[in-house]
UniProtKB/TrEMBL annotation:
Residue runs in coiled coils: none
Origin: domain of life: Bacteria
Function: Hydrolyzes the pyrophosphate bond of UDP-2,3-diacylglucosamine to yield 2,3-diacylglucosamine 1-phosphate (lipid X) and UMP by catalyzing the attack of water at the alpha-P atom. Involved in the biosynthesis of lipid A, a phosphorylated glycolipid that anchors the lipopolysaccharide to the outer membrane of the cell.
Stretches assigned to the Calcineurin-like phosphoesterase domain: 4-199
Pathway(s) where this gene product acts: Glycolipid biosynthesis; lipid IV(A) biosynthesis; lipid IV(A) from (3R)-3-hydroxytetradecanoyl-[acyl-carrier-protein] and UDP-N-acetyl-alpha-D-glucosamine: step 4/6
Organism: Marinobacterium aestuariivivens
InterPro entries (alphabetical): Calcineurin-like_PHP (IPR004843), LpxH-like (IPR043461), Metallo-depent_PP-like (IPR029052), UDP-diacylglucosamine_Hdrlase (IPR010138)
Co-factor binding details: Binds 2 Mn(2+) ions per subunit in a binuclear metal center.
Major subcellular location class: membrane
Binding positions (Mn(2+) 1): 8, 10, 41, 197
Name of the protein this chain belongs to: UDP-2,3-diacylglucosamine hydrolase
Family of the protein in this entry: Belongs to the LpxH family.
Localization, UniProt: Cell inner membrane
Length: 241
């Protein structure tokens, strides 16, 4: 079985190069896979399934086509696209995953996460995350007009960028204890996540010789994806023109 994993594309009309790169990925690499996992922040923002981001219609169509030709699609919420819902899943033929998902593999089960919940040193962000993941907050947000939602989303993005510039790299990275606990609670020694924009393979995450954490890269000057098959994994990058 061949599985592919991507995260943190932050697709938006202002970056046609990213859109083109992802369409190329969907047309070339993805059709050979049995499963494609979209592990959050695929979209720069999402204000509801009734208002999908404009300018990405070809991406939506290509995802649906890929699913229609037999590649199983899975979507996990990120901190930018946590309002993606079942209607959009039905549109592209994907399955919506919980924020912690186990997949079986010949080498043992693997835990999938977006990764933002592991950044526990950033207490300000964790409080914000708890607020916007609250069903009552989401229901209130989705009940607003499209214009109001767009304005709120824009304000939230601008505030997030401003706060991010004030925080140290260490605070915005994962907490080692949170990583070890997540893996131990799930009973796994392998974890795949995105969010931090720091692609790498980290060993010894639980103890000496135990625990491998694979971090997916964000798409900017390069595109990143993880290829996992029965023999092992490969973290792959390619230039974005």
């Amino acid at each position: 079985m061949i599985r592919l994993f991507v995260a943190d594309l932050h697709l938006r009309p202002e970056r046609p190069d990213l859109i083109g790169a992802f369409l190329g990925f969907l047309g070339k690499q993805a059709p050979g896979a049995d499963e494609l996992y979209l592990l959050g922040d695929i979209f720069e923002a999402w204000i509801g399934d009734d208002g999908p981001m404009p300018g990405l219609e070809e991406v939506y169509a290509e995802l649906a086509s890929l699913a229609g030709h037999g590649t199983r699609l899975f979507f996990q919420h990120g901190n930018r696209d946590f309002l993606v819902g079942q209607a959009f899943m039905d549109r592209i033929g994907a399955t919506l995953l919980p924020e912690r998902q186990l997949i079986e593999h010949p080498g043992g089960p693997i835990l999938l996460m977006h990764g933002d919940q592991l950044c526990t040193d950033d207490t300000e962000y964790q409080a914000f995350r708890a607020q916007v993941r609250n069903p009552a907050w989401q229901q209130a947000f989705l009940s607003k007009s499209m214009e109001e939602r767009m304005a709120i989303a824009r304000q939230l993005r601008e505030a997030s960028k401003a706060r991010g510039m004030e925080k140290s790299d260490a605070i915005m990275d994962v907490n080692p204890q949170a990583v070890a606990k997540a893996m131990q609670d799930a009973g796994v020694d392998r974890l795949i996540h995105g969010h931090t924009h720091r692609p790498a393979v980290h060993r010894n995450q639980i103890g000496d010789g135990i625990g491998t954490r694979i971090v997916l890269g964000d798409w900017d000057r390069s595109g990143w994806y993880l290829k996992l098959d029965d023999r092992g994994f490969e973290l792959i990058d390619f230039p974005i023109d």
